[in-house]
Amino acid sequence: MDRGKEEEAMENEPLREQDQLQEDEDAAQHSQISLHGLQLDKREKRSVMQKATAQAKNLNIDKTMALREARGNKCNYILGLASCILAVALVATMNTLFEYTPLLFLSIAEYNVGEMDVTVLPSSWTSLTYLNYSNVRSTVGGEDVLFNYSSPRWSIYTSAWNTKLCNNQGWNFRDASDRYLGKDGSSCGLHAESSTSSCVAEQCGAPDSADLYLIDSYLEERMGLGSHWHLEAAPPGSVYLHKDLATMLNATVGSELILQFSLSDLFSIALPRSLTAPLGLQDSEQFRSSTTILLPVRVSSIFEQTGGKFNEEATNAVVMEYGTFIEAVSKNLNPNANYLQDSFSSIDLYEYAQYVCYNLPPPRSVFYMKNDYSVVQTKVLHMMSRLVTKIGFEYIDASIMLLGELRVLRTVSIFLGLIISIIIVALVFLLCLLMYSLLIISVENRAFDLGVLRMVGMTRRGVIRLLLLQTFLTSIPGWAIGLLVSKFLVAAVLDLLKSIFEWKTIPQVETFSIQYATVIGLLVPAVAVILPIRKALSVSLTDALDIRRNKVVAVKVSLERASQKIIPTPLIVIGSLMTMFGVLVYYMFPLALLTFNLTLLLYIFFALLMGILAGLVLLSMNIERPVEYVITNIFFWWSESSMRTTLHKNLIAHRTRNRKTTLMYSLSLAFVVFVIVLLSMQIEQFKLNQLRKNGSVLAMYCPTLVKAAWAARQIEEFVQENRLVEDFALVSHSFRSVTSQSNSIRTLGRVVSAGNDVYAVTPNFFKVASEGFLTIRDQLPSYFDQLTESIYSAMGSQSMLIGSLYMDKMAMTLNSSFLLQLQGEPAMYERLRPMAFLDGVPKLTMSRYPARQFQDAIVSFPTFARLVRHLKDGYSVRDIPLYFTLFKLKDGLSQEEVDEISDQMSNLASDIGCRPRDVRNRYRGFQIASDAMGIFSSLTTGVALIVSFFSLVSSMFANIQEQAKELGLLRAIGVTRNWIARLYTMEATVLVLSSALLGLGIGAIVASTVNLKHEERIILTKFVSQVTAQQTMFTQLPLLLKLPPEIIVVILLGAVGSACLSSYFPARRIMQEKIVKLLKAR
């Protein structure tokens, strides 16, 4: 057994030895592999270290060469650095200002309607007359900061007398008995039963109408209502007067007035019936007479601007302190109600507020700091909804007039935002073009140096690294300095805006200006260096090292192999642009229409316009040479023939490089014209919109139902006595307001209908109203000069002037008839026919677009009376109430004369119970914005000219350096330094003038087009801007193209001046070199 095991072990011994040998060999091999791997790792690490060291050395060499290039070519480096600084500073500043533009429109809106975010008042469908402000404040306020800023108010229609105009002999206006009952105690004789004001009227004459506002100065200052109001709380028994009302009353500071107003509602609600019973029934004349107050007050101050407390039309405002009103009235009650003095003085007026003003928490302007109106609307409506819900939506109404005014201005705001965006994009493009021009000139001037470097072993990657390092050596310092400069620029501009708009504080807005500026500061040079790198790498080594051949060539020959793989860059660019255009028109445009996204729609339009602008600039390059030839012969005809011949040859030889400058000047000047047209259009649009609403420069508005026949006699006497007023026209109150019935236009089959309101106008309405707003689409033949005269004819008595919308909506023609629904239940109709279809009229609303479904219609006064007689028996023309009076002033009046007429009109309006309307008051709110836009326009023009000047300097400097040998030869044969300097100055002048003319022409073409308009056999050729035409479609205003001539003169003079500066001094500098040195130049 053991022997068997031993034999088996002996047989297996060779196998074990073989396995051991294999293991030893494997271990040795593994040891060798490990050692080899360690040696390989060491070699790789050594190789990586060597490569890193080489890269660091190469980078250090590149840095040294880039610094040497910057020191050797200081002009180009300074221009490049200035370009980067300008790009970063402009983008940061423009973007920051863009974020603050909502403040601009908020200021305009607050000037027009006041600084109240929400106004709450008792609902019209309830029996409530007042709001208990104390309860509302405790219920709504509290811990909710959003509703802690509010104030109660009263607004009372008042009659006012100046006591110094009264007959004070034996009559004491301070004595309540004399004021109410008369000096002899006989209750003013026969007039006592008819009017309690007769006692004062007998002594003081006819009163002036005013609006008495009761305000709580402390609460309103706390909530930020009246940020420009600089008056303290009025002392007890004192009031503040608006300047216009003070003028009508002939009042000054210290004057004593008598105010008459009724407090019958307050007496009947705040006092028990048991106390007021001796005054008579609450609806009786005796009760109203006893509760009419004649309050003597003293004028404490006179204010010219409402300061945000009220709307800008509150020119007849009387301001009194809320907390002292009850005390002042209780001391001056009617003697018949003197027994109520103690009870009345105990009334807490804060429990009987007519309406309550609410503002968002301060700084409230932060809530409006969005350029998107929908975002602002969402915030304010959310606040209003919560407020109304907390108070009780079934008991109150809420008004948001400030938001409504911002809605009117939203189109202007969108356009201004678009203009700023376009300016940023255009300036960045110009700066990118300038950087490209500077870099391509640097590459061309260093062609020999780059050839030497390539000859000694520098790879293509090394050339790219060198040019990138040179670029970022300019861009990174420019970025840092640009951010610093932008900080001071933004601070300076915000301080300027703060002083212009009288802002107390400017809210901090989160902007991304630094991020945008950083991207632009690094992206512009990176993009601009691409083509110079391709240029440097495309030059063969032989051409780069050949210093004997002149670099200026008039003819170039290029050879291309059919088999050579070349990326078709032009085809890629053109294909990409066409694809973007297709997506823009086919997808984005319908998307904007379907979603009613006005912002997107206008961005599409402006993108198309900018494409037109760029395309025309590129097309103009084809006529660059003929324009230069014409300018040379026109402006330099006096120079010798040799000078003009050399000038033409220089322009041909430098055409490739000069084309960049021509392109920049043409683009920048066309862009400047484009921006000026846009900005002036926004200003003009606002003014025309206000003028259309007012009807004429001066007008009168009658909110009460003053009979037109009686008022017309007063107005006619005023016009006859005033030599500066040519004529006047009257507009009645609407059919709806006279009859309290809704009316509409229906087809004869009563299938299609549209809401409508009917007004009566005098025959001279369109003659008196401001010109330019009447647009006639179609009309019946007439022998009358004025369209409104035709409605006073026999045919016109059965006709109306209606909007063009009904032409399309109801398939109407001039031969059609329609039904005017006069009453709902039971239905009552009048069959009429259209006298004319109008696209637009002054003062009233008519349009051809379905966006304005509810429109107005015009009839004569007799037709209006006939229509009303269907509902009111015996109604005549003499019963028609006056709504508006328009005045036509004589031509050529100065502002002082118009001011004089406005003051006289204010007195007339006060006498007949109307309110004056001067459209210039509406302009004042926008005038500040206009000044700010003017500064913005001038800044844009200056920046565009500076950028173009930089490009011209670099081009002319390169041209002169490139022709150093030729200049040396000219000097050697006797040509003077002045002759050569004059040659290059003339070349720069021709180049700039041709570019300026092309740019101005392109800007005018984009901004204007010939629009033939047919009207009664007359073809009117009218130059209207394309942008203006688009705005005219949106606003239906007669906007015309306006190019300020002073801007054009400044542009041309600046262009000629920059040409002289950019060429004469570099030419004189190189002429100081010796002729031998010039001949040896590379």
Which strand-content bin applies to the residues? 5-15%
Uncertain residue segments? 189-197, 1009-1026
Main beta sheet strand tally, sense and closure:
7 strands, mixed
Strand-pairing-aware structural class: alpha+beta
Tell me how many strands there are: 22
Helical content (DSSP H or I, runs of 4+):
55-70%
Q: In whole angstroms, how far apart are the ends?
A: 106 Å
Integer-rounded radius of gyration: 41 Å
Number of domains: 4
Shape: elongated
Specify the number of helices.
37
Mean pLDDT over the residues: 78
Describe this structure in words.
The protein is α+β, with helices and mostly antiparallel strands. The chain folds into four domains: 173 residues, no CATH class; 181 residues, no CATH class; 234 residues, no CATH class; 211 residues, no CATH class. Helices cover 57% and strands 14% of the residues. The protein is built from 37 helices and 22 strands. Strands 12, 13, 14, 15, 16, 17 and 18 form a seven-stranded mixed β-sheet that branches. Helix 13 runs antiparallel to helix 14, helix 22 packs antiparallel against helix 23 and helix 24 runs parallel beside helix 34. The termini are far apart. 37% of the residues are buried. About 2% of the residues have low confidence.
Put the structure in a nutshell.
By secondary structure, the protein is an alpha+beta fold.
List the helices and strands and how they pair.
Blueprint: H1 2-72, H2 74-113, E1 118-122, H3 133-140, E2 150-162, H4 176-181, H5 198-204, E3 208-215, H6 217-223, E4 238-242, H7 243-249, E5 256-262, H8 264-270, H9 273-276, H10 285-290, E6 292-303, E7 317-321, H11 325-330, H12 341-345, E8 355-358, H13 373-391, E9 396-399, H14 401-445, H15 447-455, H16 460-501, H17 513-528, H18 530-538, H19 541-545, H20 569-594, H21 598-620, H22 624-635, H23 641-653, H24 655-694, E10 698-707, H25 708-721, E11 725-732, H26 735-739, E12 743-746, E13 753-760, H27 765-768, E14 775-779, H28 787-790, E15 799-803, H29 805-809, E16 818-823, E17 828-840, E18 855-859, H30 861-869, E19 881-889, H31 895-912, E20 915-918, H32 919-962, H33 964-972, H34 977-1007, E21 1009-1015, E22 1018-1024, H35 1026-1035, H36 1045-1071, H37 1075-1079
Parallel strand pairs: 3-7, 4-6, 13-18, 15-17
Antiparallel strand pairs: 1-8, 1-9, 2-3, 2-5, 2-8, 4-7, 5-6, 10-19, 10-20, 11-19, 12-13, 12-16, 14-17, 16-17, 21-22
